[in-house]
Amino acid sequence: MPGTDKPLLAHLLRRAGFGATFQELDRYSELGYEATVDELLHPERQPAIEEDVLERYYIDWKESRNIEGALTESVYRMNAYAGGRPLQEKIALFWHQVFATGLAKVLHEKTMLNQIDLFRKQGLGNFRDLLLGLAKDPAMIFWLDNNFNHKDAPNENWGRELLELFSLGVGMDDQENYTEEDVQSAARAFTGWTIDDDNVASIPFGKTPWLFRYLPEDHDEDDKTFMGETGNFNGEDIIDIVVRQPAAARFISRHLYNFFVADEPQVPAWQHTPPGDPEAIKILEEEYFRSNYDIRSMLKVLFNSDFFKSDRARFAKVKSPAEVVVGTLHLLGDFKFPKRGIYDVALGCRYMGQDLLNPPSVEGWHTGEEWIDSGSLVERVNFVADQISDVQQPGVKAMVDTLLDGTSELDPVSVIDGCLELLGHVRLHEKNKTHLAREVRSMLEKRSGLVAGSPEDRQATENTVLHTMKMIGSSREYQFA
Questions:
Q1: pLDDT, tens digit (0-9, with 9 covering 90-100), for 180-197
Q2: Is residue 435 part of a domain?
Q3: Is residue 7, in this structure, part of any structural domain at all?
Q4: How many Å apart are CA 98 and CA 118, to the nearest integer?
Q5: How far apart are CA 392 and CA 332, in angstroms?
Q6: Are 67 and 109 in contact (CB under 8 A)?
Q7: Are strands 212-214 and 193-195 parallel, antiparallel or unpaired?
Q8: Contact status, residue 264 vs residue 275, Cβ threshold 8 Å
Q9: Would residue 73 count as lying in a domain?
Q10: Amino acid 1: pLDDT
Q11: Is 112 among the domain residues?
């Protein structure tokens, strides 16, 4: 219904996107919560980026000859779509963390970017179709050596990780989800699934992306036993069996909960560690089967659920470095159009511990509190503080002007509360709020000798607001979504 409370919408936009500006929250408030969820779940209804504009301004992105161009494109797209198709980019980031594939081994930037495009296009669709697309994805095939998986010399890397890290997990409820025979049969079923040779020169149009190729003469045609079923299985048959397993429903449900609701223990612990909210996981598992493995349907249930909307779920997640960087850029209103300098900003993700397109292992990044150490925390605080106190940024100027023009009498409480609201309804612990109030009061009192309404008075007040925003951005609470 219209007039939906903005803190709830801000919570939704932090999780289903990278946060929201105060102008966007005004629009979504008029739209209503459920209608906002529906809009987010259908990014295809919003305009797409003009690819020809990107190619005109960033030729190195088009060619993708190096990691710099690929990293820059990834951060630019997340930020450019943060106000129009936020969930498209958020779900791509989600699957990039689950189906972790890295340039450290692949060394083929365009092929890696094509994988991220796969996540954008199919990430909200059917999980079975997504797994099939992943099995045919050249970056993944090379990453897990399936191009070296032959009928007379099986390679188990892809077959093992498909089960362990991409669909079922090692186990649940203190039970194992698969056997070594299942791994071996999966590997045999995917023999012949390979890629074209990388024998095309990269000049003058950049690297030619690898393509999937199926070699029937290299496929093992003998019977295989997998998950208790026997037959002359191909890779597609394996995926069909996998997605029917209760373990697949649990695996996807826990991942969605961990990414969109609240931090959970890391994946290796799931076999012996029950979910933090078993009822929520059960609801998502039921929707997984009811919708025939549809991720969009599961997210619709999740975003409209009481467990997601509850006050307990808000600020229950440590922001990933990508969320810190892109969320801050979105508030600033910067880099919505191609221009120089975004690569330096994009490097912030790497410095904070999330080297996009290059996860530390096939297991991906560990999330939650493991995002934070002494070094990454300094990078986080400095990045936000530097960016959010720059009044030359259009988003910052809009927030400052809105606060100053909308409040007749400024006092520490109104300044702090106004900044918290404009920054996305951030919360501060009372102790920190009290400490900040003393600083703000001191700064406001220094205006006493200035003529009210004079340029000098306006500048002093503006500096007070900018300092308040900087301190909020430097707070521990700002690091939570």
A1: 999 999 999 999 999 986
A2: yes
A3: no
A4: 14
A5: 9
A6: yes
A7: antiparallel
A8: yes
A9: no
A10: 41
A11: no
